[in-house]
């Protein structure tokens, strides 16, 4: 069985964690540009109720398998130096980060294009579900557009 | 023969469980028919089916102890 790289983090992704990951690239001198996408939980107003958090669940085994495919496709298509992906599981409060996509390349275009494509594919192809929790303890299942 | 079914996202609200076992079904179509009887309301839900972590289109043969997953539309990120 192939070992797939884990992308899941329990709860929100902290700014300190993101900073650490950026710092860790300072000795990679062939990199000329990074592209970072941060997904943040939005306090949407739905029927006069405010979203206070999203609770994420996933079919983890399949999601990690799919993520490996997306990763491999991105490396084949773009001239990337490296790529790091983190997605939250469990509860993430409004205003906190739930997705962190980090691509690096010698020249900016590859990193920017790959980052965008990978974000789109994560949202479309990974079996992850978000449950929007409201302030009055009710919820609804999120739908991606 | 039996298959293990994993149930995710909004489908779990309908079934009330994350896992179940379905017995004596030869293919995914029979399995869904049986599950629709077990869980009223499931027939109104939209989902893809993965058999042994492979998303399948159309009716698919099942074997004993297979893991089948019901995957409603994704909403990650």
Walk me through this protein's architecture.
- The complex is a heterodimer of chains A (145) and B (77).
- Chain A has 145 residues and is an alpha+beta fold.
- Chain A is built from three helices and eight strands; from the N terminus they run βαβββαββαββ.
- In chain A, 31% of the residues lie in helices and 39% in strands.
- In chain A, strands 1, 2, 3, 4, 5, 6, 7 and 8 form an eight-stranded mixed β-sheet that branches.
- The longest helix of chain A is centred in the middle third of the chain and has 18 residues, at 60-77.
- Chain B is α+β, with helices and mostly antiparallel strands.
- Chain B is 21% helix and 30% strand.
- In chain B, strands 2-1-5-3-4 form a five-stranded mixed β-sheet.
- Chain B contains two helices and five strands.
- The termini of chain B are far apart.
- The longest helix of chain B has 11 residues, at 28-38.
- The model of chain B has no long low-confidence stretch (mean pLDDT 97).
- The interface between A and B is medium-sized, with 27 and 15 residues.
Number of helical stretches of at least 4 residues of chain A: 3
Order of helices and strands of chain B: EHEHEEE
Q: Which oligomeric state applies? A: heterodimer
User: Got a strand count of chain A?
Assistant: 8
Provide the residue-averaged pLDDT of chain B.
97
Unreliable stretches of chain A (pLDDT < 50, length at least 5) are: none
Q: What fraction of the residues of chain B are assigned to beta strands by DSSP?
A: 25-35%
């Amino acid at each position: 069985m192939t070992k797939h790289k884990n992308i899941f983090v329990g709860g929100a992704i902290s700014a300190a964690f993101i900073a650490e990951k950026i710092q860790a690239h300072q000795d990679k001198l062939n990199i000329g540009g990074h592209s970072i996408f941060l997904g943040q939980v939005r306090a949407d107003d739905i029927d006069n109720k405010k979203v206070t958090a999203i609770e994420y669940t996933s079919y983890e085994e399949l999601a990690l398998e799919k993520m490996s495919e997306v990763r491999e496709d991105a490396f084949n298509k773009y001239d990337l130096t490296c790529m790091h992906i983190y997605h939250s599981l469990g509860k993430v409060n409004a205003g906190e980060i739930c997705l962190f996509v980090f691509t690096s390349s010698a020249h900016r275009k590859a990193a920017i294009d790959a980052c965008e494509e990978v974000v789109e594919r994560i949202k479309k192809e990974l079996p992850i579900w978000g449950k929007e929790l409201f302030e009055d303890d009710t919820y609804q299942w999120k739908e991606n557009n | 023969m039996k298959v293990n079914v994993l149930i995710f996202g909004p489908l779990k609200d309908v079934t009330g469980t994350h896992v179940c076992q379905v017995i004596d079904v030869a293919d995914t179509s029979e399995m869904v028919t049986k599950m629709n009887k077990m869980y009223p309301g499931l027939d109104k839900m939209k989902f893809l089916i993965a058999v042994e972590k492979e998303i399948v289109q159309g009716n698919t043969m099942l074997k004993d102890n297979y893991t089948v997953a019901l995957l409603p539309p994704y909403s990650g990120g």
